What does this fold into?
Amino acid sequence: MPDHLRLDSPGSTLVIAIDDGTPSILHWGEVLDPDEDIPSLRAAQARPVPHAGLEQPSPISLMADAGRGYRGHPGLAVHRGGQDFVTDLRVETLSCTDDAITLNLVDAQACLAVSLIYRLDHRSDVLEIGTIVTNTGNTSLQLDWCASLVLPVPAQMAELVASGGRWCREFVLERTPLPARSWLAENRTGRTSHQNVPALTLGSAGFSETSGLIFGAVLAWSGNHRILLDRLADDRRVLQCGSLFLPGEVILAAGASHKVPPAYATCSGAGLGTYSAKWHRFVRDRVLPTLHGPRKVHLNTWEAIYFDHDVPTLQRLADAAAAIGVERFVLDDGWFLNRSDDHRALGDWTADPTKYPDGLTPLIDHVRALGMEFGLWVEPEMVNPDSDLFRAHPDWILNVPGRPPITGRHQYVLDLGRPEVFTYLFDALDQLLTANAIGYLKWDMNRDLTAPGHDGVASVDQQTRAVYHLIDKLRARHPYVEIESCASGGARADFGILARTHRVWPSDCNDALERIAILRGFGLYLPPEIMGAHIGPRPAHTTGRRLDFGFQAAVALFGHFGLELDVTKLDDVEREMLGRWIARYKQHRALLHAGVSVRLEADDTGLIANGVIAHDREEALICCARVSTSPAIIAPPLRLPGLDPARRYAVRIIERTDHHSRQMRKTTSFIDGEIIRLSGAALAAAGVQLPNLAPESAVLIHVMS
Ligand code: GLA
It folds into this structure.
């Protein structure tokens, strides 16, 4: 058996050492020289025995098992009625290719096998870890925890970035110094949650967008999860993440296996920007399902009409949308049997005959005749007590017998682990998609899971897998239908759901000031084009702010662009302006949806600047949004790093959304829209002087070589 295994990608190296059969990560991070002497690396890292310490070294094995004296949180917590609780997994067989290491670990005494696969993606430097646990004994084995990833943390990591928020304020980044003790985030909401993005990022002291060592992990899972940064008694730190099992949730019968959700890790020696770019590349290349064509401009009906559906009104809305360039018309909640408000009807997936006397076809035909695609909102996992479905099958919900079920948004969660429920939902959705020309589904999920019992056993894990299976089965039958993942806004945006859905609704807050922050947080792991971004009504329905349409558009341009307002009520000026921004989106979307996202670091607390740079660095588009007044009388120039230092670029302000600012008597030619020509080096070092923008306005800068 070799004493180590190694994988390399252009920007990272993984070395797994095997010591007396115990595998552990010797190095994961920045790329090592191909000729590096691994025995010397191992010798250089060997830790002395401290006074009053254990006589033998206790490696952080790949499953962090306790058999060799490891005293941190185990990566695998199993037992048989309280026995065999210590595991000591040793390598039985292994294989190594150019991009993957497979290890089969066995603990003969505990009657347990774990198969691990580490796959390193050469384009993105993202490491994927797959884990399967098998009960090789002849009694059942209870699985309390099985980490999808166990990574020793480099000692120079000094800060962490966690991500989460709440309804209407999702994806907030929280940067804090590493705590002196362990750090834990657990999600028990039964969905990915608004509060805890299943991921964690660590950085060396003082890291920035362009400097510092960054290291982090993501869990591909839409159910309960645990992210743990464990601090060991001997000061080492270990990162773990995995699906969080409720008591008794995963019990393996003799011979049975359990595959845990995959986890991913990547690192960067050049700051947070490069780190995010690696994740984006990976998600685009390896996670997302194929898209058939560019991302279409949406008109979503929710904040335009809510539940007040009638065909003539919707047809007028479609006419007005098509006239300004909308490409997809998405009929949101309110279309199905008796759905007059959010108290009733979930589960009854047929068009309401009082609103749609001839079904959806006349509206769909109208939308398609205007050259747009038709999309439809559904919330398949749910049922209202006031619905025909619930009246017929009150026992179809997740619950614990004898405990009164709890409603959330007046609804219960269907138990998708029951074959008859799964079949009912598959048939209902299949029928909708077969009978109607629907190109897009907005798949919503609007409540947490409480007492999620299936036949008296906790069932979040099974429910999450069943949701995945339902979507997969529908997609196999209807491969051209695009799907959006929504959960009261952004409560289900993760690599697991994104392996089967094409975009995410990140927030029910359409207020562009809030959305700028959401975009920055969302973009830590996820590429911006999968984030739905709509121009909403004025005032915004969740904050009351009256933001200019131009400002809203400049912000939305950097996501998947759309409108969510009654476009029949626009005046001529507004209609012309929105039409112009839609044209802009279409003009630039190839760049925006494939380029490298950058979060610029403005030397001005009131300015947020984001952009996208083409991979060949030929072109860039930057949005500079003023969110509050500048502390300076004239805001400092904005530096534009990331371009080719040696190339010359033509730089021009192509949109400016403040038409009321009277702060400058005399401006410069650049501010007034003239082209300046500068090298990438000068743009990074000196930057460009922006106009003194009024709060809630933005400029769009175009850079072309
Ligand atoms: C959720 C979604 C909204 C909208 C409503 C409809 O709240 O996040 O975008 O679809 O449901 O009920």
